[in-house]
Amino acid sequence: MISQTTIILEQGDEDLIKMIIPKNPCVACIFHGNMGCCGCTAQTRYVEQIQPIKAAGVLEYAQKYNQLVNLRKRIIEDQAACCALEAELRNIGVEVKEEEIV
Asked: CB of 16 within 8 A of CB of 65?
């Protein structure tokens, strides 16, 4: 059996998917998931920000897009750190060969 799902984006969905989703303030809150939560302003603001994305039904894809953006930023930062370390090592006479590192 083959199951196939077709996803058709409506006008504006791509823009919603590409929105930067703020970090959920509830994750770091000591009251998260228990009776102590009273809906602080940070939670209210977060819910308001992601509401259009949820309403369009593209939250899962917006989260994936945000994850991709964050991974690419990390790759760029890591590459810059690698270049700085390689330059420092070369400055003291250490030959850095790519095949030795990988």
From this structure: no
